[in-house]
Amino acid sequence: MTKPLFQEFPEVSSKQWKQKIQADLKGADYNDTLIWKTIEGIDVKPFYHQDIVEEPLAIDNSLNQWSICQTIYAHSAKASNQKAINALKRGANAIKFIIPSTDISLIELLLDIDLSAVNVYLECLFIDPEYIKKHQELLSNDNIQLELDIIGNLCKTGNWFQDLNTDHDNHYDIVSITNALTINLSLYQNAGANIVQQLAYSLSHVNEYLNHLDAKIKPKDKASFVCLFNVSIGSNYFFEIAKLRALRVLYKSLASEYGFNEACTIFAKPSKRNKTIYDYNTNMLRTTTECMSAILGGSDAICNMPYDVIYHKNNEFGERIARNQLLVLKHESYFDKVNNPADGTYYIEELTNQLATKALILFKEIEAKGGFLSALKEGTIQRKIKESDQKEQEQFENGEITLLGTNKHPNPDDKMEHELELYPFVKTNIRKTLIEPIIEKRLSEKIEQQRLKTE
Predict the structure, then answer these.
(1) How far is residue 54's CA from residue 52's CA, in Å, rounded to a whole number?
(2) What share of the chain is helix, strand, coil (3-state, %, to 5)?
(3) If we measure between CA atoms, which residue out of 412, 427, 438, 449 comes closest to residue 158?
């Protein structure tokens, strides 16, 4: 052969492809038959072509550096430390500790963990600058990231830790030590927000922080500032890949306006929203594809969800299976061997552009009306998420969204009443709050409650 293979084939334009498709439809309407309209307002085409896709986005992340993380609730510093060491021996290379109170010693919690080789995430369920100052030397390690989100706490609980001014003052005292922010984007996804809303709300969420910190953080510290997004990944495979890519693009654009470090860290985990208690082994299939989206979308760390986390207490078997799913993806499926494999994929590039564009429009609308906190106070954010949740719930109940073993092909012999170690449904706790909290809710809760009553 004297010339490259593909020069032997004539180029085919998108117009020619569409004409061929329309001819093969034999009179059926192209738009009605082949265009998929999503809840985000995006029309998904049957094919994507180079000549109709904008210039590929320059997304800076190194796929092969993603970490396999295990999350541990630190009831006890000593016991949690031993559990972390065991997880690291069994394949994890990152640990996330959820710290419930100031009684937990970080020195004891991190004892014998090689902090030069292991990334550690510390999620605090409280706000106490003195606690952080006490561990300031330890927290100066680049591989340790403290997670504290006072606005996220307001969204989830309806209240500040103390009050707006005190929380912001304490938050600044902590940020000035850690030089890092955390945004709980996961809450919006699990409550039913569509992808455009998730991106817009997280951007408006972080904008509240950057606007508040802009004049207080020194330029040299802005350059090394770290923003971490906690993200839940749903089952819409390609859209979730595009969501993570769009998140990086949007944050880069916002951070550059304030002069902050334009790179961000993405900590991903599967969504709870589509998990079920019946036919629970199917949850392993769901979490596998969700972890694949997280990897291909460019997450920095991924913590898989045990298949039985909805209804079982933490157990070694469920955690081992969840960790092994990621180990298989990394070491047997070689998902760590290529940087940014979605680059140049016309479909994903176009989805990324559309999601980012629509999210930016919504972000600007929120900011024009006073910003994220104002929208929360007025209940706008909560109402919009509820509307999206209801649309998705109706799609599930109509069979447009399928959860195998629950609303399609259920096993009538599957009994769960005596398997429930945890209450798997929304808990009602009536209390006084400043704003209406954003409530996480699974799609299958109603049908599961009905089945439990008839077992």
Answers:
(1) 7
(2) 45, 10, 40
(3) 438
Instruction: Write out pLDDT tens, residues 199-228.
Output: 999 999 999 999 999 999 999 999 999 999
Tell me which residue of 229, 274, 254 sits closest to 364, measured CA to CA: 254
Kindly write down the DSSP assignment for every residue of 91-157, as one continuous string: T--EEEEEE-STTS-HHHHTTT--TTT-EEEEEESS--HHHHHHTHHHHTSTTEEEE--HHHHHHHH
Query: Where does 63-351 sit in CATH, by number?
Result: 3.20.20.240
CA 65 to chain CA centroid, Å, is 18
Nearest to 181 by CA among 224, 240, 238, 135: 224
Residue 335, C-beta contacts closer than 8 angstroms, at least 6 positions apart: 63, 292, 295, 296, 329
Distance CA 301, CA 132 (A): 23
* Nearest 10 degrees: Cα torsion 8, 13, 15, 19: 20
DSSP-based three-state secondary structure for 438: coil
Phi, psi of 145 (to 5 degrees): -125, 125
pTM beyond cutoff 0.90: yes
